[in-house]
Amino acid sequence: MGLRDALDEGRFAVTAEVGPLKGTDTAEAFEVADLLKGKVDAANVTDQQSAVMRLGSLATSSLLVGRGLDPVYQLTCRDRNRIALQSDLLSAHVLGIRNVLALTGDFPTFGDHPDAKAVYDLDSVQLAWAMRRMNEGYDISGHELEGKTDFFIGAVVTPYTDTEEAFELQCIKMEKKIEAGARFFQTQAVYDATVFERFMKRAGKLGVPVLAGIIPLRSDKMARYMNRNVAGVYVPDDVIAEMAGAEKKMSRGLEIAARLIKELRSMCQGVHIMAIGMEKKVPEILELAGLS
Amino acid sequence: MIRSEQKPFEEILGSLEGDESVFILGCGGCAAACGSGGEPEVLDMRARLEGQGKSVSGHAVVDFLCQKALVISRLGARRAELEAADSLLVLTCGVGVQAVAAVVARPVHPGCNTVSLGGAKGEWQGAERCLECGDCLLDATGGLCPLTLCSKGLTNGACGGAKRGMCEVSEHRPCGWELIYKRLASTGRLEKLRTFVPPKAYDRMRPRAEWLATSVWDIEAHAPPADGAERR
How far is CA A261 from CA A32, A254, B138, B230, in A? Predict the structure, then answer.
């Protein structure tokens, strides 16, 4: 059982996130994996998130396979050219990884190696297409593979944008990703059901499952920070006020996350919970949302 | 000099699909010197397009297409022919195509690929707008180059990192894809955004050996040591 089965069977899918650490310590990742196992359909493994150098998503995804938790191997275009991307994908297949999420990747200047050379040899649409070609038994130059891949190809989309142009660009690119081979989508964090509803009016017609992104808030300060600095994230004023007025902010953040899941549930095919340091609270969110 | 060469004729014809009438614009500067867009090439292109049943409403050669003020003043005298055209076919480098696209409201099709001379072109105004990639994408992007306008050089659309229309890399840099969106919307060509752009052939960005052999690179490579000593 895993993400593909859940979506194929039409069950409301739940994915969470495992973030590899900077270093060789895997204890935390294993602890989170064991806690999530049986409670979520799959766990994303982030690829050098925010351009910060860490343990790789390929190795960590492979460890999750061994642990019995279905991984969603995140792969960005920032650090690898088309040769490395395809080779890593072949490696992923033989290690038992099936779900792959194609991402562009934050620019290196965001991270802890700001002087790094950015690659972007392929973009996220071309990466999804490359996976489809590999599923068909070819590399992107058209050479036949000795043994093809069987990837469940995922991509990302941002439901909220602060300009109309960006919204249209997101919707058009989503369609291009589907044509290229994407079979499921995970979204940037959603905090406003009406914003998500507007997006799903467009995206829902495309016939590809969408998992709404959920990031539990820890404080009103965190919400304001994200509104200022994180593209595609918009926390409405009433939610910020609710967090500001709460005595136990962490618990209130989990309640708001659960409430959002209940609101979004009828509009999409699943949720993707990005707990960013609060992974151990994911089961509690699911319980509050009536999903456990 | 910025070196350009004409795109394959089939590609040019493909880009003009749906346009009944076209105005051809050449450049009396670099493109004339390279034989890609001077007067003879413009006349030859006119004959070939008419041979394919295209209506050519007019043609002009401007020195230099990279100078927007010159383009505006020269095209001002050709308004009737431009108004009769559905689009413009521009035979020059990527800088010139972008300059023309910025000063006309009609769609602009690049007729040339700009190719690399390995940095030996010298100073050229607007050169930062063209990466000399050897496979011009400007037809699909409204005459705005995604390789130079998008920090990540993405060719299939925006990354999602823009905030208030500005790039995630710098708040002083507009999102190139939002600019491209606005330009395509203004010319009624948003459907161009839906076409999958395959991975770029980056080997075409390397300068070709036969051109390097005619440039300062070659002189440096074959010059004896200036201090008279034997090279080991």
Answer: 21, 11, 43, 77
| Amino acid A280: pLDDT | 94
CA distance B195 to chain A (A): 8
In b/e form, how buried is each residue of B122-155, taking b as 16+ CB within 10 angstroms? eebebbebbebbbebbbbbbbbbbbbbbbbbbbb
* Domains of chain A in sequence order: 3-288 (3.20.20.220)
Collapsing DSSP states into helix, strand and coil, what is residue B126?
coil
- The domain segmentation of chain B, as residue ranges, is 1-139, 142-196
Q: Tell me, what DSSP letter sits at residue A45?
A: E
- pLDDT of residue B222 exceeding 90: no
**In angstroms, rounded to a whole number, what is the distance separating the alpha carbons of residues A215 and A187?**
11
CA distance A152 to A15: 14
Chain B residues whose CB is inside 8 A of the A79 CB are none
Mean pLDDT of the B66-84 span: 95
CB neighbourhood size of A194 (10 A): 9
| Interfacial residues of B (vs A; Cβ cutoff 8 Å) | 151-165, 168-169, 175, 177-178, 181-182, 185, 190, 193-194, 196-199, 202
Phi, psi of A272 (to 5 degrees): -120, 110
Report the CATH number of the B1-139 domain: 3.40.50
pLDDT of B214 reads 66
Enter the ipTM: 0.94
**Closest approach of chain B CAs to the CA of A104, in angstroms?**
6
Residues of B in contact with A121 (CB under 8 A): 199, 202
